Amino acid sequence: MTLSSKHGRYVVQQHKSKNTHWDFRLEIGNKMLSWAIPKGPSINPRETRLAVLTKPHDISYNEFEGVITKGLYGAGKVLQWDKGTYNFIDKDKDIRDMFRDGLLKFKLNGEKLKGDWALVETNQNWLLIKMNDKYARKDIDIVKTKKKSVKSGKIINEITKDDGLITKQMDLGWD
Predict the structure, then answer these.
(1) Contact 109, 86 (CB under 8 A)
(2) What is the distance between the alpha carbons of residues 35 and 25, in angstroms, rounded to a whole number?
(3) 20 to 30 A Cα–Cα from 6, which one of 52, 71, 90, 101?
């Protein structure tokens, strides 16, 4: 897959480190473009979610669930909250142009998240927004009602080193 690809895998990981947040990751090439979402995604189009761009992660992070050892970047528990595939809605634009323009529109086909979404760059950060479609719901807080891992069926406090363990710094950044 090249940087100009229009589709790939995505994962949302609940991450209990200094503060609990959700990491939203889109596969681009051999990396996962990543945003930290403090409150987690919302399926309510009226609720925008702060999405702080972080360093890209290695593609192997797609499958990780477990514990990152204390002292490493991201130390704490990681739960695979959602996963699936995505495709960009604007198929005529290159990902680099969309990123430069500060607007990524995509369709998710995951176990929990589905339909049309957008990441919109603001002055200093990004916002994750659920677009109004048949999957939008205003009456459900999905991060509170759907707490279990799509990989293990566990909740974040049940994750242990036996689920997975990272003991050395993973490769971060583009090749």
Answers:
(1) yes
(2) 7
(3) 52
Between residues 147 and 124, which one has the greater pLDDT? 147
Paired strand residues for 50: 127
User: How far, in Å, CA of 19 to CA of 105, rounded?
Assistant: 28
Provide the CB-side half-sphere exposure for 105 (13 A, CA): 9
137-166, pLDDT tens digit by residue?
Answer: 999 999 999 999 999 999 999 999 999 999
Burial class (CB in 10 A: 0-12, 13-18, 19+), 129: buried
Q: Dihedral sign, CA of 132, 135, 139, 145?
A: negative
Q: How many CA atoms lie within 13 A of 81 on its CB side?
A: 25
Residue 86's alpha-carbon distances to 74, 109, 160, in angstroms, are 25, 6, 29
d(CA 105, CA 88): 6
pLDDT tens figures, 35-45: 999 999 999 99
Closest by Cα among 139, 100, 134, 126 to 38: 126
pLDDT for position 1: 33
